[in-house]
Amino acid sequence: MIYATSDIHGYPLDLFQDLLRKAGFGSSDHLYVIGDVIDRNGDGGVAMLRWMMRQPNVTLLRGNHEAMMLDCLFLFTMDAVTLSLNELDPKQEYNLFLWHRNGGMTTIANLVKLNESDPEELTILLDYVQSAPVCAEVAVPMKQFVLVHGGLNGFRPEKPIEEYDQKDLVWTRPYISERYWDDRLVILGHTPTEYYGEKGRAFVTPTWIDIDTGAAGGGRPMLLRLDDLAEIYADQ
Predict the structure, then answer these.
(1) Long-range contacts (CB closer than 8 Å, 24 or more residues apart) made by 228-233
(2) Among 7, 12, 81, 233, which has the minimal tally of Cβ within 10 Å of its Cβ?
(3) Measured on CA atoms in the order 56, 17, 61, 142, is the torsion positive or negative?
(4) Rounded Cα–Cα distance for residues 88 and 96 (Å)
(5) Interatomic CA distance for residues 66 and 13, integer angstroms
(6) What is the pTM of this model?
(7) 202-235 burial string, b = 16+ CB within 10 Å, else e?
């Protein structure tokens, strides 16, 4: 079975593992995490990333929060402990401001702790996030899917996925009326489903499904099983 989840945003690892057990997730299954593991809550998603990067059947796709983190890699250089805001160039200052404004401080604090205790592990973690693709095309019997964090800005049916840039894919928020392909279902997150009038539940349209069920704001994350489109929700 193939599963997808999105926008965990620091949700506790043990509770997420409970959700996987509830779904019957096993070694022969595969999980796609469609971005935004980090920021806002708990340890900022650091434990979740450390677990994910060691699972052969879990694939991370980059979300806008991972993109913001990668724009601030200068924080984790050797002299980051003594880094002053006065030393930042305007682009670095803006990138840090944007990440901070979007809930990045808890992640920054826990990555700094990891750097102090195990710098090699931090390097592995950052390399893992850097290697994460921004979208994936997935097939199950009789179904085709495109997994992407935000949507497809400037969508045209004939436009190849490779021609969309990162901003098009991780920052986009589709209108309810947006239609994508008729022969491929898009699975996305980024926009909490409550903004579409479906708080805490998946929002389903004919050509795309939003599975950001609001964990950033204290809601319960979900798994979507692509094989049969079953929705499995965390108990807390």
Answers:
(1) 231/201, 231/202, 232/19, 232/22, 232/23, 233/19, 233/200, 233/201
(2) 81
(3) positive
(4) 9
(5) 18
(6) 0.96
(7) bbbbeebbbbbbbbbeebbbbbbbbeeeeebbbe
